Amino acid sequence: xxxxxxxxxxxxxxxxxxxxxxxxxxxxxxxxxxxxxxxxxxxxxxxxxxxxxxxxxxxxxxxxxxxxxxxxxxxxxxxxxxxxxxxxxxxxxxxxxxxxxxxxxxxxxxxxxxxxxxxxxxxxxxxxxxxxxxxxxxxxxxxxxxxxxxxxxxxxxxxxxxxxxxxxxxxxxxxxxxxxxxxxxxxxxxxxxxxxxxxxxxxxxxxxxxxxxxxxxxxxxxxxxxxxxxxxxxxxxxxxxxxxxxxxxxxxxxxxxxxxxxxxxxxxxxxxxxxxxxxxxxxxxxxxxxxxxxxxxxxxxxxxxxxxxxxx
Length: 312
Prior knowledge:
Layout: H1 8-17, E1 27-29, E2 34-37, H2 47-56, H3 60-65, E3 67-70, H4 74-86, E4 90-95, H5 100-108, E5 112-116, H6 120-134, E6 137-138, H7 145-161, E7 167-171, H8 176-188, E8 193-199, H9 204-211, H10 234-243, E9 246-250, H11 252-266, H12 272-284, E10 292-296, H13 303-311
Helix pairs in contact: 1-7, 2-4, 2-7, 4-5, 7-8, 8-10, 11-12
């Protein structure tokens, strides 16, 4: 295996490291599929796993100086919460277009918020400038081996909880979650298919795979606001090429339908970014004998937004 890829030992070490930070989330049976419920994490999304794994490994001097990240919402909340748990300062660079709910929750965890333009590249540039000026450590949202290993603990748990799983559907934003989950699954149970799911309006991983290299989209747009990076990471792209069987796209209408389906059929509150995998499984019309598992990556949606999806 490529030495740059995250190993199963890396993921197992991350699981031990974050045991007091992240929850071991349940898998529930929802009829035609099972659901790995990362929406039940303390800050409502899987991102606490990668943030916890990275911050736990920082030396004392880096912790004392503080951390910074750039995020549309969930990773920012995760870094803010983990930083509070470790008693260190945190700065979160977010888009001005982020949901008010996510901004308020980051602030409630005690982090400083800086609002910039809508793209992930704008957030990254501002975070790098702030880190250099203030001596802060950047906790990247996806393209770092410690972040990927932390996210991989989702896959580790999933296989321990589901002996019957034949396929696992994972949302794709920058690629950190699917990189970690696929690395865990393919190094534990090679016969399980791993399918990445991204919005049709933000198909950066599909486009990159077609080009054979990471590409940058001119723009992205989707109700799945956690999956809108314009470019996958170099490291996450390498993991997807090595471990992922297929990447599919889902349109916003199907994603909104999946938000409603999860609530009506499983009593699960999922944000669109977390529901997109369910949309893909339902569209695939799995045949008898298959046991798909959809990773519900997050549930951070405001009551007003959620009500709109349910009324549609």
